[in-house]
Amino acid sequence: MKSKVRVAVIGTTGLPARYGGFETLTHHLVDQLGAEVDFTVYCSGKYFEKSPKRLSVFNGAKLIYLPLNANGYQSVIYDIISILHAIRHADVVLALGVSGAMLFPVLKLFTRKKILVNIDGQEWKRPKWNWIAKKVLGFSEKMAVRFADVVITDNKVIQQYVHKSYKRKDTWLIEYGGDHVSKQPLIDFHVEQFPFLKDPYAFNVSRIEPENNIHMILDAFSRAPLQSLVMVGLWNHGKYGVDLRAKFSNYANIHLLDPIYDQDQLNSIRSNAKFYVHGHSAGGTNPSLVEAMCLGLPILSYGIDYNRDTTNHRARYFSNAEELLKQLSFFSETDLSQMGVEMQQYGMQKYAWQRIASLYFSAFKGESQAVAELTFGISKQNVHAVELKTKNTKAATA
User: Fold this and answer.
1) Which of 259, 275, 255 minimizes the C-alpha distance to 196?
2) What is the DSSP string of 195-213?
3) Is 398 helix (H, G, I), strand (E, B) or coil?
4) Going from the N-terminus, what domains does the chain have, and what CATH number goes with each?
5) Using the 8-state DSSP alphabet, how is residue 283 labeled?
6) What is the pLDDT of residue 371?
7) Neighbour order of strands in the sheet with 92-96
8) Nearest of 113, 69, 120, 65 to residue 93 by alpha carbon
């Protein structure tokens, strides 16, 4: 009997996943590849408080807890300790993020264990970090790209950045998945709980941080009283969210909800939205965006290159509150319907978890991405066909 490849996943808060792209990715890798891969996932003891309900195994994956926070300044120590522990038993270490990458040069002196790193979306450029954190994360990114056996990017724009900045051409492009979400009807309980759902509304679910342009979105909707907005996030986590909630919660058309951890409830509210508003200005392929696409929602997105690439340049874009306000005023039901169809067609091909898990499995085994595309019958041609179809539609309507 052929032994399973042993993979340790580090850099996440752990499983079961709640919010978070890396956590959702880990969940689906474990779910899709559990028959071929022996997974160990490192988890934050700060996030999963010790209790009888804390799991030791999730869907066959072994869970190991560290008494540290997986995010913020502790993430560097959290990742380094995880790597040092993982390297003793794993064939492959999958690092999600670059926080522990400063250890990679040392590891290469003492072990031939394979190191894969998903470098995320230029984490060191995020405005939430001070200059010291940016220096540390920038150095970690350099070490990750230079010393990892496999470098994974989740967006073509990030991949091009790595090629240009570090002259490394052998990177893998593996996006996030979004086809795990399903369109669900609004049930009476949800409408009773949130009566404003009876009328058409836009939707957003985000971390409440400046880089996600929450203030910009709220400003635009505060001046569009005929357009209702439902926004879900952790509003009391910091001054930014607290101040925004205090400023905008009294507008009749703006509904600011606390986090919804019940996925069925979240999908019910999200999938019945009129359109999705996406404000992220940092990162690569954002999970909440591809999920909205797979639900067939029309997209109004902040117009950075990452978001344009993710949506195949077929969404509507804005760069400030004024432009978003204009977009809210000048689209028709026909435009929205057509955009939703295009978003779903592209999303269900490009962001399918089966495709993404297959690519990761090939990377674990040391294959090339070109071989992976052939071996697993990944729908690259179908994706290309959708790209051509949307480009032809755009040309015909220009």
Assistant:
1) 255
2) GGGGS--EEEE----GGGT
3) coil
4) 5-177 (3.40.50.2000), 188-350 (3.40.50.2000)
5) S
6) 66
7) 57-58, 61-66, 37-44, 5-10, 92-96, 114-118, 150-153, 172-173
8) 113
User: What average pLDDT score do residues 126-142 get?
Assistant: 74
Phi, psi of 183 (to 5 degrees): -70, 130
DSSP secondary structure letters along 227-279: S-EEEES-TTSSHHHHHHHHHHTT-TTEEEEPP---HHHHHHHHHT-SEEEE-
Closest by CA position to 356, among listed 177, 180, 181, 117: 177
Q: 142, 167, 140: which is closest to 83 by C-alpha? A: 140
Q: What is the pLDDT of residues 30-76, one digit of tens each?
A: 999 999 999 999 999 988 877 777 899 999 999 999 999 888 789 89
Residue 87 tokens, joined: 């390297």
| SS3 of residue 116 by DSSP | strand
Residue range 193-238, pLDDT digits in tens: 899 999 999 999 999 999 999 999 999 999 999 999 999 999 998 8
**Helix and strand tally (H, E) in the chain?**
16, 14
Say what the pTM is: 0.86
Residue 246, classified by CB atoms within 10 Å of its CB into exposed (0-12), middle (13-18) or buried (19+), is exposed
Selection from 43, 70, 173 nearest residue 119 by Cα: 173
Contacts of 251 (CB under 8 A, 6+ apart): 221, 222, 225
For tokens 């509003």, the residue is: 235
Q: Determine contact, residues 257/224, Cβ cutoff 8 Å.
A: no
